[in-house]
Backbone:
């Protein structure tokens, strides 16, 4: 047992990775607290499902225009330096939101403006943080760092919203925003304390014309049947399925008759499922079985969303949320691993920019459409239709995706799984 645990935690033997891990533990807990509190604040101020979808659209709209170019900044300017700047800007955004909320001056347009600014920051922050782990561990331990980073993110997804739900019920949303601002200080302090073991080489073409750099990545990815199938399925899951999370306050209030605590527990149940999904992938050492697992997880995600939309009791809804957490994490993590492992070293950064775009760039459209549909036809009907689209996406994936891929060790993967699912 001790030997098995040591193998799972071996990346923590690196000093700088330990610092990064602890900083992320604090910071991501605060981030998920803010996500939950902001959703409830928007719903409290507007009582409108459309406004929940609209704020989701505004916050992710910058990725629609800039998402494919985010990785270039990290390649050109240095990852740690860029992360320090973005984390400082995130601190300022959370602090402004906290002050406006705690003084009672907050209005919907404040939330929209601050969400849009945060969306711009995240376009550059996420690719840099995804790639930064490659500078902190040896190549043989990169696959393990992926699993640890993914597990950490989903543990905080469990704890953060649940804690936020109780804090909002007793102290209001402002305290969650203030705690999130403080959490960024832990990350900034950790970044200043660590020493990068090595700097990543600048990929060929990164200093050339940005569009030419991105275009080569697009041609490479969509010229391959396997990568195109994965990116198409993930895009459809993000378009039709993932936006249902913005409507959790509506379900908590109108369907289950609970408050922010109930909304936080539902988000926490999804986090529990996501942790299980991350841990189930942590012991894999090859691509064998991943293509089929990714497609099955995509189908399970659609089924979980449909079950959630049909639930009228809190416990069945929480179970459906756990299923969506497991399946969403498994689908994205499996595709993430396959994309990174199959990609050539020179193209990996661009492939990961495309991977990030499948949820950051596509999400704005889905947020807007689902919010509008929920306003007109009700949240359960809108969410259920989204689940059907996810089922169709997995069917298309199975039709196009080869089930047997070249056997390559997962230790080749140099960056962690994405955390923003």
Residues:
């Amino acid at each position: 047992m001790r030997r098995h645990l040591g193998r799972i935690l071996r990346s923590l033997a690196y000093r700088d990775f330990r610092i990064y891990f602890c900083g992320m533990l604090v910071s991501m807990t605060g981030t998920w607290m803010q996500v939950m509190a902001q959703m409830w604040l928007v719903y409290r101020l507007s009582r409108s499902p459309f406004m929940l979808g609209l704020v989701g659209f505004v916050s992710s709209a910058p990725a629609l225009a800039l998402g494919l170019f985010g990785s270039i900044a990290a390649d050109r300017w240095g990852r740690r330096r860029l992360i320090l700047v973005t984390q400082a800007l995130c601190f300022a955004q959370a602090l402004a939101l906290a002050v406006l909320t705690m003084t009672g001056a907050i209005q919907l347009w404040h939330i929209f403006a601050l969400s849009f600014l945060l969306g711009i920051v995240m376009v550059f922050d996420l690719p840099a943080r995804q790639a930064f782990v490659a500078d902190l561990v040896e190549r043989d331990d990169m696959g393990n760092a992926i699993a640890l980073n993914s597990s950490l993110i989903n543990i905080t997804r469990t704890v953060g919203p649940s804690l936020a739900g109780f804090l909002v019920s007793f102290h209001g949303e402002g305290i969650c925003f203030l705690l999130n601002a403080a959490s960024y200080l832990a990350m900034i302090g950790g970044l200043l304390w660590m020493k990068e073991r090595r700097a990543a080489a600048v990929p060929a073409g990164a200093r050339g014309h940005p569009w030419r750099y991105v275009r080569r990545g697009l041609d490479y990815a969509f010229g391959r049947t396997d990568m195109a199938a994965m990116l198409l399925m993930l895009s459809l899951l993000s378009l039709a399925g993932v936006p249902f999370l913005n409507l959790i306050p509506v379900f908590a209030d109108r369907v289950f008759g609970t408050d922010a605590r109930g909304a936080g527990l539902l988000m926490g149940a999804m986090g529990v499922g996501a942790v299980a999904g991350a841990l189930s992938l942590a012991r894999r050492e090859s691509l064998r079985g991943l293509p089929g697992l990714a497609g099955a997880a995509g189908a399970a995600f659609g089924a979980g969303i449909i079950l959630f939309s049909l639930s009228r009791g809190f416990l069945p809804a929480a179970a459906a949320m756990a299923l969506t957490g497991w399946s969403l994490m498994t689908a994205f993590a499996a595709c993430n691993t396959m994309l990174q492992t199959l990609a050539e070293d020179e193209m990996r950064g661009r492939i990961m920019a495309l991977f990030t775009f499948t949820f950051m760039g596509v999400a704005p459209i889905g947020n807007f459409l689902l919010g509008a549909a929920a306003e007109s036809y009700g949240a359960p009907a809108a969410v259920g239709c989204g689940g059907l689209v996810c089922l169709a996406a997995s069917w298309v994936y199975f039709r196009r995706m080869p089930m047997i891929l070249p056997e390559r060790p997962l230790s080749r993967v140099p960056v962690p799984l994405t955390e923003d699912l």
Q: What stands out?
A: Residues 12-412 form a domain with the Growth Hormone; Chain: A; fold (CATH 1.20.1250.20). Confidence is low (pLDDT under 50) at residues 411-421. Residues 15-46 form the longest helix (32 residues). The radius of gyration is 20 Å.
